[in-house]
Amino acid sequence: MAEGVRKSGVDGFSLVELLVALVFTMVLMAGMANVYKASLSAFYTSGESISSNRRNRMSVDLLVQDLNLAGMFLTDLSSPPAVTEAMPTFLILPNMDVSGAGSDDPNQTDELYFYLDQPLPFEATLSSGSNQLSAAELVGLGRALTTADTAYTLACGSTTYASEVAAGQVLVFKDAWEAVSITSATRSGSSVTVVTGPSADAGITGSGPAAPASRVRHLENSQVVLIQPAQMVRYRIQMLNLDPGSATGIPCLVRDQGDYSIAAFTASQPQQIIAENVAGFAVYLSTNGGTSWAGLDASGAKAIYSDFESGWDTGIRAELDAQLLTSGRPGVKSTRIGPSWFRNIPLLVRVDITTRTATRRSEYAANPNAVAYRLQTQSLVLVPRHSGLAMN
């Protein structure tokens, strides 16, 4: 029987074949890595852009609500109480320095200030107080006024709402549209017992009760409106230490609020952070329908003046007066007509808000081998709801 042919070696790949396969595999892996890197970069950049755009929209929505209340004097429709030109009811301080800003942060920003009588975000129900005698009834009976005649219990609906009621606010009875001042407030759960006093400006304007007693009896279970009067609001960019990895902090658009003072603005309420990573905040005004904007020069670039005197009084406000001379508005030639000018003159307000991404990336840089933030700017242009519709 013939023997089979025996092979001299074991079948397999040669070294050359292995090296060639390895080279092809490395090339393929490098291509896949580039695709993965590009996909990951697109995921991060799109997410950051959406986040930046969302911050813009939230800032604009809040500003619309506030600007529609700016300059509204709810406690006295003819004039605000005790204001001066040294602290106007509406002003812009352009190009103010941002304290603590780093080299990549906004170094200057506009500051927006405005006066408002702020309604609380709820209406209360008069749960007791309908038995109090009115001023006329007290005179007719010859009876002296007691604390019980000026005390009312308000059902606020929740303990959170009840905690917002405080002395110094104005109480408006909707059954007679009578406004009185609150001299004290005692909370008990979701209800508040308030003691009222005379209207703060009754002796000046002739409106509102001049004595603690009410003009008329008020209906039980009727609604009342509560107003925090004479408030001043400020919007600006401020560096806040919200990120432990940032030595200078994060530039944030913040909203501060406090009682109006003829001397200077002082924030007394908790600060609200409107948006983080805000790279720019600019406010412009126009009294000629947007043909020109006070705060922008003829080329459309932002004006360089700043502070109150040169930035507001002889800057933006002077430009508004120049616009009024040629805007064709009969009888209105200047903003210097008193503290309520912002309400009396038809006005356009433009706000530019620029947000940046949270991280600097090479994808956002104009030069190779560099990193930068991506910036997005959104503009708000509106006519405040009350502008040009004076009630006096």
Helicity range of the residues?
A: 10-25%
Approximate shape: elongated
Enumerate the spans where pLDDT stays under 50 for 5 or more consecutive residues.
none
How many strands, which pairing sense, and closed or not: the largest β-sheet? 6 strands, antiparallel, barrel
Strand content: 25-35%
The domain count comes to: 2
Q: Please give the count of helices.
A: 6
- What order do the strands of the largest sheet run in, or round the barrel if closed? 2-3-6-5-4-7
Structure report:
By secondary structure, the protein is α+β, with helices and mostly antiparallel strands. Helices cover 23% and strands 29% of the residues. The protein has a six-stranded antiparallel β-barrel. A three-stranded antiparallel β-sheet has the order 10-11-12. The radius of gyration is 32 Å and the shape is elongated. The protein folds into two domains: 47-115 and 231-382, no CATH class; 130-219, no CATH class.
Quick synopsis:
The protein is α+β, with helices and mostly antiparallel strands and 392 residues long.
List the helices and strands and how they pair.
Layout: H1 15-67, E1 90-97, E2 108-128, H2 135-141, E3 151-155, H3 159-162, E4 170-173, E5 178-188, E6 191-197, H4 202-205, E7 223-240, E8 250-259, E9 272-276, E10 278-286, H5 307-326, H6 341-344, E11 348-356, E12 375-382
Antiparallel strand pairs: 1-2, 2-3, 2-7, 3-6, 4-5, 4-7, 5-6, 7-8, 8-9, 10-11, 11-12
